[in-house]
Amino acid sequence: MHITHLGRSALVLACLLVVPASIHAADEAPRSYLGDAVPDLIAVLPPAPVAGTARYEADRRIFRETRRLEGTPRWQAATQDVKLDVPVMLEKFGCALGVTLTEQNAPRTVTLLTRLRRDVSGAVAGPKDHYRRKRPLLIDRGPVCQPRSELETSYDYPSGHTSWGWAVALVLAEANPGRAGAVLQRGRAYGESRVVCGAHNASAVEAGRTAAASVVATLHGSPEFRDDLAAMRAEIRALQGRADPADPGQCQTQNALLGLSPY
User: Quick one: pLDDT at residue 244?
Assistant: First the structure.
């Protein structure tokens, strides 16, 4: 069949339009659930503590006192809790859940948490930029458990790590209510790790929990989220008894270490 120059150009253009679209669709990361409809956390959270107030001085005292934890097992746990990726979070909550979740055996859980992370990040960005509160290591001297360069150019209030960790704990507890107590305890410890690390003030951790609860409560108004949560619940239920944590002894040690508040 003879194809004219004009026809050949049209054919090439059609291929360029069709092929990249399919590639982009395959590579596209899961979008958030709420988009711009995240809750206004500036209205929800109490204002960040300011110099001269009791909350501000309490934050300074807790930061100074927790510097004594440097080099202890709790410090090492806080260092490990710096990581935020979804597969790492699944591993961190494995003992609390009583089941090992991975990208391979729990894809619906991974999808929900990936979308959830975008919503949490979008929500906490507003108050962080609004208050621009300095991190504790920029107010008082003391060791921190991660490179200072990772902390010095961003803000303290609310704690993004805590917001993310508590949001993960809330949805995992709802998906596996029989283990809710252990899951929420691990979520609490994840936020406390930020104080141990010296990356955040105690008030920023408290605000992070409120931020997470606000986002998760708002998410329950999303049919997509509710459908994904139901799929996540079924996925975890199906894995119970088939994907137990690999090292019960390690889980017992972790529970003993993280069960008590470090401050």
Answer: 83
